[in-house]
């Protein structure tokens, strides 16, 4: 008998009978069907209300738009994934005005001084987005560790429009989260923010000062 079975059996014994589990009702989480354009519009309005920035791109234009965005910020370096297609596309790009491309290919102990003091921006993929809350879903990997989205002053996130879901519940079902999850999953809704004892909200204090999303349609 497993530990779970043992605990449930003890509960049954205390209650004097079979433990009845109520049926789950997720109808309150369901939303009317929406188009991709409607979800993008809702996502953009929601995340921009908390200082996020959204740019609509195509597969052909996103690198040029990225270069323009980083140039306008004066970014001198961009941290990219090693194996992900985003990193490969950037390394193979002939875009001349991209900043220096850096690869997170050493242990964090070696990377800390550079990551905290010299990296101006980092770019990551996303697992999807949530239109209702204006949130990005990130599942960190060794190729795209969590610090890439939490430390550099500018976080660039690439989101496929086809992976933008109406609600968190819809995202979990579509991506079958029940089959397994990583050690940590990130839901990001805007740049870092904090509030003092007087509830004055401040942005960019303990993490990225800017969150820029490239939505590829």
Q: Would you state the CATH class?
A: Alpha Beta
* Name given to the CATH architecture: 3-Layer(aba) Sandwich
Provide the β-strand percentage band.
15-25%
| CATH-derived topology | Rossmann fold
| Residue runs with pLDDT of under 50 for 5 or more positions | none
Short descriptors:
six-stranded parallel β-sheet, 12 strands, Rossmann fold, single chain, alpha/beta, 217 residues, four-stranded mixed β-sheet
Describe the model.
The chain is α/β, with parallel strands linked by helices and 217 residues long. It has a single domain, classed as Rossmann fold (3-Layer(aba) Sandwich), CATH 3.40.50. 31% of the residues lie in helices and 24% in strands. The protein has helices at 3-15, 36-48, 62-73, 85-92, 108-117, 147-150, 168-174, and strands spanning 52-57, 77-80, 100-103, 121-125, 128-130, 135-138, 154-160, 164-165, 186-188, 193-195, 201-203, 210-216. A six-stranded parallel β-sheet has the order 1-12-7-4-2-3, with helices on both faces. A four-stranded mixed β-sheet has the order 8-5-6-9. The chain starts with a helix and ends with a strand.
How do the strands and helices of this protein lay out in sequence?
Blueprint: H1 3-15, H2 36-48, E1 52-57, H3 62-73, E2 77-80, H4 85-92, E3 100-103, H5 108-117, E4 121-125, E5 128-130, E6 135-138, H6 147-150, E7 154-160, E8 164-165, H7 168-174, E9 186-188, E10 193-195, E11 201-203, E12 210-216
Parallel strand pairs: 1-12, 2-3, 2-4, 4-7, 5-8, 7-12
Antiparallel strand pairs: 5-6, 6-9, 10-11
């Amino acid at each position: 008998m497993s530990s779970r079975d043992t605990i449930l059996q003890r509960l049954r014994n205390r209650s004097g009978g079979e433990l009845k589990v109520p049926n789950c009702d997720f109808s309150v989480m369901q939303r009317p069907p929406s188009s991709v354009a409607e979800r993008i519009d809702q996502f953009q309005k929601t995340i921009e209300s908390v200082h996020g920035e959204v740019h609509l791109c195509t597969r052909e234009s996103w690198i040029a738009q990225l270069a323009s965005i980083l140039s306008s910020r004066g970014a001198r370096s961009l941290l990219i994934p090693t194996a992900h297609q985003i990193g490969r596309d950037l390394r193979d790009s002939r875009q001349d005005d991209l900043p220096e491309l850096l690869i997170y290919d050493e242990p964090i102990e070696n990377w800390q001084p550079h990551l905290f003091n010299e990296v101006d921006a980092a770019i990551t993929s996303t697992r999807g987005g949530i239109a209702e809350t204006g949130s990005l879903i990130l599942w960190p990997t060794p190729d795209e560790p969590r610090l890439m989205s939490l430390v550099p002053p500018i976080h660039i996130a690439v989101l496929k429009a086809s992976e933008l879901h109406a609600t968190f519940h819809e995202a979990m079902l579509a991506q079958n989260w029940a089959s397994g999850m990583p050690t940590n999953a990130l839901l990001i809704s805007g740049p870092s923010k904090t509030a003092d004892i007087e509830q004055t909200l401040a942005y960019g204090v303990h993490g990225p000062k800017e969150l820029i999303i490239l939505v590829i349609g």
